[in-house]
Amino acid sequence: MSPESAADRSRAGVLVRRTLLAGVLISGASLLLGLALVLVTGAERPKGPPPPLGSLLKQVARLEGRGLLNFGLIALMITPVLRVLVLALRWTAEYNYRLAAIAFAVLGLLGMSLWYGVG
Amino acid sequence: MYTNPFNIGFIFLAGAATGVLGAVLGTGGGVFLVPGLVLGLGVPMHYAIATSIVSVIATSSAVASFNVENGTANMPLGMTLEVATTTGAIVGGAAAGWFSARALQIVFALVMVPTALSMWHGRTQKPAPDGGGPPRDQDQNQNQNQDQGENPAQDQDRACGGPSAGGLGACYFDEALGRHVAYRVERLWEGLGISLIAGGLSGLLGIGGGVFKVPALHLICGVPIKAAAATSNFMIGVTAAASAFLYYGRGELREALTAAVVLGVLLGGLVGARLNRYIQGRVVGKLFAVLLLGAAAQMVWRACAGGTS
Questions:
Q1: pLDDT tens digit string along A72-102?
Q2: Which residue, A81, A90, B170, B286, has fewest beta-carbon neighbours within 10 Å?
Q3: ipTM above threshold 0.95
Q4: B233 CB-near residues (< 8 Å, 6+ apart)
């Protein structure tokens, strides 16, 4: 295994680490703020499925507790997806097309689930 | 119920306790969280599973971020197996919508049994004295004692440059051993098969699935236990995300409940990582193995008696 390969792996590892940590921090902050607002206002959860993405973003812009909670949860669920995307792009840039194809296949599966669930 | 500050505080503490246990015992925490929410707090089974699957993403993302940088997690292997785990998780997550709460409780209780046995027998994060190397003969280049005076770069070249490298094999530096450990990946198709099942159980029950993935990686694919645990942890977040979107879309993710649990689990994980140095994981593991078996029995009893949520 060449030193360049080991260095490439380390750089990919740093990229993945930053992606994961950023996702956890952003979602954690949104969940904390949203939970505090919901507890303070005492807003009950609306019945039915969660709001569409467009409505959700408007709720976030208005700093509504429920919107922030949903945003935080979606941000947390998307974090691993972004991790896969980072690796797919990284491996493509390194001309490792076999691994890149595998990563894009995983991304496709996650995208299906994301589209079906979040819309 | 989930907007009452007292209830939320209690749920936060339950999440924190799960995070501590997960860090001390080396599990994802789902096997504690779901019974804790269902039996202890009366949360309906589907909501508990949805909450657990999101908390698994949180802990996996936080822990894996360190393992990928130090090279212990085998990202190419993990990504390859994720094709299977993600597929299984989507099927499991979709199927959970068709299962009754009673059926899910019984299946969950059955899965708790091998987890409890694994804890009783002391599956820890610390490597065996030989680095937990794969149970097969290795190349002569691997697992040789480091010569006196050999520098780290020479050790890396010797350990990582042999025929064991390449493909999905990898090489990482084991701090406990003070040298690089290289390994090949074998029987990939069997590993993919078990990953598919582990992913299905993860999506169906809200657990990480590490109790199946780690032994599969180590005993079947020949990955050293430390790398197997790190790679499993790397995979768990993606596996959980695949089904989490489905639970979200069905409206089974209670936002306030999940937020309180996730924040608690993250804090508990940090505390548990520090407590790890002072606590004997094996002793705690045996204690909670017994508690898990008791909880499994209680879940089955409640499901059969019709006392489900």
A1: 999 999 999 999 999 999 999 999 999 999 9
A2: B286
A3: no
A4: B60, B63, B64, B67, B73, B210
